[in-house]
Amino acid sequence: LQPMSDTTSPVAKKARKSIDVCAPNDERVGRAARMMLSNPTYSVPQAMLAQDFTEGESKDRALQQRVRRLHSKLEKSATGVVADVKDVKPAAAVVPAKDFAAHIPLGLKACDFLTKSTDPFLAVKTCTDALDAAGFVKLSKRDPFAGVLKPGGSYYYTTNHSTLVAFNVGHKFKGGNGFKIIGGHTDSPHLKVKPISKRSGSGCVQLGVECYGGGLWHTWFDRDLGISGRVLVRNTDPETGKEKIDQRMVRIAKPIARVSTLCIHLQTAEERGSFKINKEEHLSPILGTQSLLESGAKAQLNQFDDDDWRKAQEPALLKLIASELGIETKQIANFELGLFDIQPASLGGIQSEFLNSARLDNLATCFVALESIVDYSKSEDLADDDMISLIALFDHEEIGSQSTHGAGSPVMAEAVKRITSAFCDVVNVEAHSSAVRRSFVMSVDQAHAVHPNYASKHEKSHGPKMNAGVVLKTNQNQRYATNGVTGFIAREIGRKANTPMQEFVVRSDCPCGTTIGPIISSNTGIRTVDLGMPQLSMHSCREVMGIADLSHGLSIFGSFFKNFNEIDESLEG
């Protein structure tokens, strides 16, 4: 109940005993109740969400009542503990500092977003669900935008169901005016299921997987893994009777797969010291045992399935997917699936100042960008705005962006051209060129915070810290798109928002990563700056960042939409 240095003291022993007596069978209820005791700022639903309840469970009144009852018992128990021990001053309760308490609601909302968004398809779906709820109008890319887009309107469309473009039209916008663009990416390193997924060995049924992106693959061992992605489903159109293929999203948040480490006793000292991974041999997860799953394989063979692709898949996996989607196995025509750690996102740290989650790089940006575009759609500032405020969240950044829907594709340039043309009476090449020159892109990807155990890895004067502000990234070799002018504009945006910003330059003796910034700026000619929220453990299966930086990012993005035009007009040339 209280932080105590001596865990063997009578106070500590009695506190533990009190918790054991009061705690119910559901350990999460106990954790939520204790969190309310130590964090008075929490409501019951907030405490439950912070302790890995689903959003639906956090609204369950019966569960809420159990948390309240246990919280009441623990309060009484805590009082008794202190009263029984003389001359012992109780330690101060661990209450979130004022600086962090204000950021907790946004942090909890981010937890929900991240837990739902287990791959690019689900990330885009989570975004479009929020946009639909906010009144944004879905556009069809196959139809003209002219006659559909209106001043003051809010719209979105997707490409491949894994790239998203959403935008607000200023009430005073005219064709040829500029675009304020926030760019991010929806993908993260993970294990993707191979086209022939069936695999087995040593009595175990396994899954054939391929490494996507540059992950820290050793962090994927001994994790409870679920599976999610896109499934193509054969259906019949009830009106025409013709076959149609539906694209369905699936997320199975159950521990159906696991990549196990080799026990210490079967490794040499050299193997233990290096922990070298063969990505082909060592990362295939185990789904089950052959003896238990053979019946499923025989059942599939007995159906005389004539689809060669389905025959190459693990039958038990197909059956699970079909059950989840409420269809028959034979309706599954294809899939794009990946594995994910089923542990939900959560707040951590002694003052709940950290956000622990998978895929922070770069879904933290996607979350804040989504919040900012929805907030701005409801802002009074939109009435006087003569520009387009837009977010573009791309797939395939982690593997180079060179695809039909990556940042290297026509998606960005096409968005500017089509939206501009929709507000021109005739085809006007000059209007598009003018729009490009008046536009600005914030390329936002997570940044590297200084690791206290490896501080020497950062350049001494450019070491961003978590919870200390959004990071401005600069690299003279153009691995980042920031230059003197775009860096100035970003700092001015932060200054007008009264929001802290930090600087990052990689050490001269270290390689520098890159982002979608240089790709977009070179493909479109639009001025670009590279920013990011600082985090640790980038590309790990589980990452961490500061919750205050979510608020800092939201503040920067809001100031960008509100103040960019004024700042840009003050620049000579």
Structural account:
36% of the residues lie in helices and 22% in strands. With 573 residues, the chain is of the alpha/beta class. A 9-stranded mixed sheet has the order 1-2-3-13-4-14-18-16-17, with helices on both faces. A 5-stranded mixed sheet has the order 11-12-20-19-15.
Major beta-sheet overview: 9 strands, mixed
Strand content: 15-25%
Given helix and strand content, the structural type is: alpha/beta
| Order of neighbouring strands in the sheet with most strands | 1-2-3-13-4-14-18-16-17
> How many strand segments?
20
Mean pLDDT: 88
Helix content percent band: 25-40%
Low-confidence stretches: 1-7, 11-24, 78-96
Oligomerization category of the chains in this entry: single chain
Shape: globular
Count of separate DSSP helical elements:
18
C-alpha-based Rg, rounded: 26 Å
Our measurement of the CA-to-CA distance between the termini, rounded to an integer number of angstroms, reads 62 Å
Structural topology:
Elements: H1 10-22, H2 27-38, H3 44-50, H4 55-58, H5 61-84, H6 98-101, H7 104-116, H8 120-133, E1 137-138, E2 154-159, E3 163-169, E4 179-185, E5 190-201, E6 204-212, E7 225-236, E8 243-257, H9 269-274, E9 286-289, H10 290-302, H11 308-311, H12 315-325, E10 332-341, E11 346-348, E12 354-357, H13 360-377, E13 388-394, H14 411-422, H15 429-437, E14 440-444, E15 447-448, E16 470-473, H16 484-496, E17 501-504, H17 516-524, E18 527-532, E19 534-536, E20 543-546, H18 547-569
Parallel strand pairs: 1-2, 4-13, 4-14, 14-18, 15-19, 16-17
Antiparallel strand pairs: 2-3, 3-13, 5-6, 6-9, 7-8, 7-10, 11-12, 12-20, 16-18, 19-20
Helix pairs in contact: 1-5, 2-3, 2-5, 8-13, 13-18, 14-15, 16-18
